[in-house]
Amino acid sequence: MAKSETIAISKAEYDELLAYKKQVERLKFELAEMKRMIFGSKRERFVPEQNPQQKSLFEIEAQNVKPAEETITYTRKKQQDKEKQQPLRASLPADLSRKQEVIEPEEVHSDAKKIGESISEVLEYKPSQLYVRQIVRPKYAVEETKPEESPIKIAELPGLPIPKSNAGAGLLAHILISKYVDHLPFYRQRKIFKRQGLDLAESTMNGWFNKSTQLLEHLYEAAKKMLFETDYLMADETPIPVLTKDKPGATHKGYYWVYYAPMLGFVIFDYRKTRARDGPNEMLDNFKGYLQTDAYTAYNNLNNKGNITQLACMAHARRKFEHARDNDPPRAEKALHLFQQLYDIERQAREDNMDYAATKALRQSKAVPILKELKSWMEQERNHVLPKSAIGDAFKYALDKWSRLERYVEDGRFYIDNNLVENSIRPVALGRKNYLFAGSHNAAQKAAVMYSLLAMCKIADVEPFQWLKSTLEQLPEYSAKDLHKLLPGQE
User: Which has the closest alpha carbon to 417: 348, 323, 315?
Assistant: First the structure.
């Protein structure tokens, strides 16, 4: 065996080598993150690796021991041959309409007596049907009238979502739901309509979209007012490409700032041209209460920060350690075990349908000790890892945000993480993959109106088409002071 060789180097050379080592570790981590984004699984469930000291059930080492021999006899009854069992088929939903079709047998004598019937149900589909709603208003000539009255009597035309338009509430609702729930761009919808015999111009569909969202903006403003009157909000942001005159041939990177009130079930999307703090500064100017966000610095120095108490997202802290498993498996898995225990407590509270008081009591008795153990352990271990490594970055993130991370145990209303508002952003990500960009800054804000109202439908478990159709029918003549009654789940 070759003897190890000691080489003397200067302090400057040693520092340079150490810097290279740190850089290599960082590049390895960035490469792993890139591979994870392209090829990796999106789930974050932690599955601990098996203890290497524990033998697998199927990897027990063979023993050089001759097995004992024994003779076993038994009698078995031979089963009778029977037809192969058919798989069970789920019954069709009872609330679906039935169209009955009776098929009589051929050559049945007139005096035959019916003794029963066999019913087979086949699930069928009929494509959506366009039809023309004709509103007929008879005119009457009245001989005896007052001087100020017209001698011709005719009923008033019912209120329409778009005055002087031939688009009904059902068609407008279908177009909007197809785009913002089913993610079908207008040009794809035009092709579908053309197959049904209706050739709609793109300008017509855009005009209907603008007028519809202009009407729905009143409802959006009512929801926004109610949302910011609560005292607990979650916030997040997501990019949206936008076509502008400022960048011919390219898209501008705008942002949706999303605010979610968990107690109310309301979501508000607010479009801004940048990710600067101007957006939350304006939206949260009169807010008083608790704000739960990720680590983005724009939320730290708001003009109204004196009235805001911040909470952080435990899922973001946990994610840092999950990403550091390749860098430092023992430490990363130690942290993930503790995070998993915290989430087990939250799962118990949900499954037992605990109220806010019981949830707080459970957290105080079970979660607080785990949080103290996690913090103490991280403070000890952070000095034994490279600050720029993945595990070092995870320690720094969690400890820097610790007071906000552990604040959720102070109130049973608070959530352990920000996942609810992140879930409400997902339709935007799906939309980006289909219609690619918003046509203008104005169109992006109009889309924010739709994303807000339809996200509230999902939270309230309200069927979006029926809600939107009914709302568009009622809005033109609805009282402004009662608009909140039209919001999803507020009946």
Answer: 315
Please work out, in degrees rounded to the nearest 5, the angle formed at the alpha carbon of residue 474 by the alpha carbons of 421 and 95. 75
CA distance 470 to 119: 37
Q: What is the pLDDT of residues 290-318, one digit of tens each?
A: 999 988 888 888 888 899 999 999 999 99
pLDDT at 376: 94
Contacts of 378-386 spanning 24+ positions with Cβ under 8 A = 378/335, 381/331, 385/328, 385/331, 386/22, 386/25
d(CA 207, CA 190): 14
Which amino acid does the sequence have at 418? N
Specify the 3-state DSSP secondary structure of 258: strand
In a 3-state reduction of DSSP, which class is residue 152?
A: strand
| Cα(126)–Cα(469) distance, integer angstroms | 21
Cβ-Cβ contacts under 8 Å for 412 (sequence gap 6 or more): 354, 355, 356, 357, 358, 359, 360, 363
* Whether 452 contacts 220, CB under 8 Å: yes
Q: How confident is the model at residue 229 (pLDDT cuts 50, 70, 90)?
A: very high
Residue 445: phi, psi to the nearest 5?
Answer: -70, -35
| 139 strand-pairing partners | 154
3-state secondary structure of 50: coil
Q: What backbone phi and psi angles, to 5 degrees, belong to 117? A: -155, 155
With cut-offs at 50, 70 and 90, classify the pLDDT of residue 24: confident
Calculate the alpha carbon distances from 194 to 115, 128, 191 in Å.
50, 13, 5
